[in-house]
Write a structure and sequence with these properties.
Blueprint (H helix, E strand, L loop, with lengths): L2 H64 L7 E6 L5 E9 L5 H12 L2 E7 L18 H8 L3 E8 L6 E4 L3 H13 L4 E2 L23 E6 H8 L4 H15 L2
Parallel strand pairs: 2-3, 2-4, 4-7, 5-6
Antiparallel strand pairs: 1-3, 5-7
Helix pairs in contact: 2-6, 4-6
Bound molecules: zinc ion (ZN).
Zinc ion binds next to loops.
Length: 246
């Protein structure tokens, strides 16, 4: 009997055994890795699908705007001055009623720059509502990009008379809030979705990349549009004081 040969055979078997164990754990490890990669890919696919859905919604919105005709369904009103303050109402006319009237009153009282995109349709003016962070009408962007202080006037729901103030220019926003309150207007805590803090929001696309977004309740806008202009005039004075005393 050749012991040496046996030992060699055992050594070979032992080596084979370890190689096999090693290989099988390598296969297991690769399997787990693939599973992880699959999970990551699935997540990425879900995100991509969400993005596609979002872009489709945006396209639908833009399409309804493209179908609209300038000067028939909407019009753009502009007055450029040498002021470094700009007031915009991008949901003006019949989109958010009363916002054009306030923006115009505020701008003309102070000789500020004025821009208003106005819905003129007899119904369904909301089809012309482009969200503030998507609003990229050339003239509006150009005016705002040259503006030092920018105010964006909007309308929100609410039968009571109140205002929400947002935007990235928190200093001016606070001054306006104080001034409005002093003049007897109610300023409520702004809900997150109306805070206007996105850098893409047109109000924050001025020189300093920060402006003030003013959301006015339907109740207060109805008051602005009534024959008695006391409320509108007092609101204009309150905001003017805050802006001009900066
Ligand atoms: Zn609006």
């Amino acid at each position: 009997m050749n012991i040496k040969k046996h030992v060699t055979t055992i050594k070979v078997f032992a080596l084979l055994f370890f190689l096999l164990v090693g290989y099988s754990s390598y296969v297991k490890y690769q399997g787990a890795k693939l599973e992880d990669e699959n999970k990551t890919l699935k997540k990425q696919l879900d995100i991509a699908n969400e993005n596609i859905k979002e872009q489709k919604n945006e396209l639908d919105e833009l399409r309804s705007l493209l179908d609209s005709q300038k000067d028939v369904d909407y019009e753009i009103e502009v007055n450029e001055t040498d002021s470094n303050v700009t007031v915009v109402a991008i949901h003006g006319g019949k989109i958010e009623k009363g916002t054009t009237e306030l923006a115009y009153a505020l701008a003309s009282h102070n000789n500020y720059n004025y821009y208003s995109f106005q819905g003129l349709k007899s119904t369904d003016n909301f089809a012309l509502h482009v969200p503030s962070d998507k609003f990229a009408e050339t003239y509006a962007l150009e005016m705002v990009s040259k503006s030092k202080r920018t105010l964006s006037i909007h309308g929100c729901d609410g039968a009571e008379e109140f205002t929400y103030i947002g935007g990235r220019d928190t200093e001016l926003a606070n001054r306006i809030k104080e001034s409005l309150t002093k003049h007897g207007f109610t300023v409520k805590d702004t809900p997150k979705d109306l805070a206007g803090i996105s850098p893409d929001n047109i109000v924050n696309r001025d020189i300093d990349e920060r402006g003030v977004q003013i959301e006015i309740s339907e109740g207060l806008r109805t008051e602005f549009l009534s024959t008695n202009k006391d409320s509108l005039n007092s609101y204009v004075l309150a905001i003017s004081e805050a802006v001009n005393n900066m």
